[in-house]
Amino acid sequence: MMTADKPGLYIHIPFCRSKCPYCDFYSFTADEATKEEYTASIIKNIIIWQAETGAEFSTVYFGGGTPSQLGSENLSKIIKAINKQPDCEVTVECNPFDLSESWSADDMLRLADSGANRISMGMQSAIENERKALGRKAGREQVEKAVKLIKQSGIDNFSLDLMLGIPYQTVDTIKESIAFCTESGAKHVSSYLLKIEQGTPFEKVEKLLDLPDEDGCCEMYLAACEELEKQGYKQYEISNFAVPGFESRHNLIYWDCREYLGIGAAAHSFFGGKRFYYPSDVQQFISGVKPVDDGEGGSFEEYVMLRLRLTEGLTNSGCMKRFGHDIPKEMLEKASINEKHGLLKADESGIRLNPKGFLVSNAIIADLLS
């Protein structure tokens, strides 16, 4: 996996065409004037941060919301304002409906020419009734059209989201969706279990959704892990799989507890040894609100929690390099108990969870840190 000495840059774009019934992220529909103002404020903040810190970024990630809702011109303006390393990974999250119905080949070429070289697309499922149950506007045909548009621009590094434990889903339909990922040429798949969040429309109708029970969700996750491996996608994190060499370099910064700057309403940062965030309010951000202090970052406990999300796990060499000591003996002793249950591997090099362990990772990590 590639590492980076320079920080990453996260840019939050909170605009969506419509709100998905399972989503609790800060996002909403907005008019073009608001999008223009927000773009100008993003660029202004980037310039200020770069001038004050001299930051040069190894990765850039546009998340949301739906960044493609900002349009190719605004996205390109932002990318061009960023001080980037020559090999900088620049990821833009896109909605397949936007790309297939609103974007042209020129729009995608403009984005690629500005420096974007990776696209992450919210497919969720390649099965029509599953997509409709999730409130997704695009069908399989629109996803295929969006993929074609991405490839025509010269961007061959793209990721597809695959949601598990959703209405109507079976192990067979999961395999069908994975086959679609393979056939489309996706280099990366983010495959994660549906979580019913508080305050979402799905929470209000959860009992009517015909969702799989806990055992069913576990079966789907393990089946997806196995099938993705068969199709050439190597698992490198709880929910992420990639053709070797195409792991998300930006997300690896998070999971290795390295520094990143977040800009935009609701964006969080770990930068200069501090954690801070912008309030979840676009108008406040446009008005120049300062980020809110969120304390120190980069503790050993935080490092353990993040590293154990990775299949590479928590390593003695990593702990020694970062903190000047190996994994504590007591932690290794606790890990050996979980190893007997077939949930992880603990040896002289470190601690690594397997897919079964990832299903109960919160409990394992809490036990190791207690």
CATH architecture descriptor name of the largest domain: Alpha-Beta Barrel
Beta strand count: 15
Strand order of the largest sheet: 7-8-6-5-4-3-2-1-9
CA-based gyration radius = 21 Å
Outline the structure in words.
The strands form 3 sheets. The chain has a 9-stranded mixed sheet, sandwiched between helices. A 3-stranded antiparallel sheet has the order 10-11-12, with no helix packed on it. Strands 13-15-14 form a 3-stranded antiparallel sheet. The two termini are 30 Å apart. It is globular and about 60 Å long. It is built from 16 helices and 15 strands. α1 (32-53) packs parallel to α2 (72-80), α7 runs parallel beside α9 (214-230) and α14 (329-340) runs antiparallel to α16 (361-369). The longest helix is centred in the first third of the chain and has 22 residues, at 32-53. The protein has helices at 32-53, 72-80, 96-101, 105-114, 128-133, 140-152, 171-184, 201-204, 214-230, 249-255, 282-286, 300-307, 316-323, 329-340, 355-359, 361-369; strands at residues 8-13, 57-64, 84-94, 118-124, 158-164, 188-193, 234-237, 240-242, 260-263, 268-271, 274-277, 292-296, 314-315, 344-347, 350-353. The chain has 2 domains: 8-255, TIM Barrel; 300-369, Arc Repressor Mutant, subunit A (Orthogonal Bundle). The mean pLDDT is 93. It is of the alpha/beta class.
Helix and strand topology:
Elements: E1 8-13, H1 32-53, E2 57-64, H2 72-80, E3 84-94, H3 96-101, H4 105-114, E4 118-124, H5 128-133, H6 140-152, E5 158-164, H7 171-184, E6 188-193, H8 201-204, H9 214-230, E7 234-237, E8 240-242, H10 249-255, E9 260-263, E10 268-271, E11 274-277, H11 282-286, E12 292-296, H12 300-307, E13 314-315, H13 316-323, H14 329-340, E14 344-347, E15 350-353, H15 355-359, H16 361-369
Helix pairs in contact: 1-2, 2-4, 7-9, 14-16
